[in-house]
Write a structure and sequence with these properties.
Blueprint (H helix, E strand, L loop, with lengths): L5 H11 L6 H34 L4 E7 L5 E7 L6 H5 L4 H8 L5 H9 L6 H7 L3 E3 L6 H10 L12 E3 L1 H5 L6 H14 L2 H24 L4
Parallel strand pairs: 3-4
Antiparallel strand pairs: 1-2
Length: about 220
């Protein structure tokens, strides 16, 4: 009897999918750029860590399990933006409901970090380690993987590549976009991924982050 679950089947399909020749130069770019960005941003990383400790104590980092390439589960890190214990309270929610409930859980510093997307900076370490890429589908929690795979038959294809710090879905759509809309953009990246698209996505992300950072600095915290 076949006891393979839907999630296990999709993970197997992703592992068996052929790698493209363009994946090697993309990984080389990941290594060079993530190391460079970590070095350049180290003073900012230290300041953010101090601000979190001074205003809300420890921990500085949030650590959460995410599904990576081929279904491998890894620990993703980012700056903590929510009140302690928020992960357990928000665990069952996804999409718009998660956005709505999370809005009441942000710390004052965390709200500004999230608005500017600076909370994602520690994920450069995940990129350097090989857990993630700078560009790709955003990583998802294991608890939601099988649920979404059942709803969206093409969902397994996200596991063919490393999840990304940013991606097509992030630069084209707002966070509240449906999972089906995000998947469509993710699949476009997976099918057409190239050095040119990788660099274009990074430039678009940098421009978006700069605009959001400027707005977050002048807008009063809630």
């Amino acid at each position: 009897m076949d006891t393979e679950t839907l999630a296990e089947r999709y993970e197997r399909l992703a592992r068996e999918a052929p790698r493209r020749g363009r994946d090697a130069p993309l990984r080389a770019l990941d290594l060079v750029l993530s190391a460079f960005f970590l070095l350049v941003s180290s003073p900012l990383l230290a300041l953010i860590a101090l601000a979190i400790v001074a205003t809300d104590g420890r921990p500085v980092l949030y650590r959460g399990e995410r599904v990576g390439r081929g279904g491998r589960v890894f620990t993703m890190v980012k700056f903590r933006t929510l009140q302690r214990g928020a992960e357990e309270r928000l665990g069952p929610y996804l999409g718009e409901e998660l956005v709505r409930r999370a809005s009441a859980e942000y710390t004052p510093v965390g709200r500004r970090l999230r608005a500017a997307q600076l909370d994602e900076l520690p994920q450069l370490w995940n990129v350097l380690r090989g857990d993630m890429s700078l560009v790709g589908p955003r990583p998802i929690r294991p608890i939601f993987f099988e649920e979404l795979a059942a709803e969206l038959p093409a969902y397994w294809q996200r596991l063919v590549v490393r999840p990304g710090l940013t991606g097509f879905a992030q630069v084209r759509r707002e966070y509240e976009a449906s999972m089906a809309e995000k998947l469509a953009h993710d699949l476009e990246w997976i099918a057409d991924r190239s050095v040119r698209l990788y660099l274009r996505t990074l430039v678009a992300t940098a421009w978006r982050v700069l605009r959001q950072s400027a707005r977050s600095l002048v807008r009063p915290a809630d």
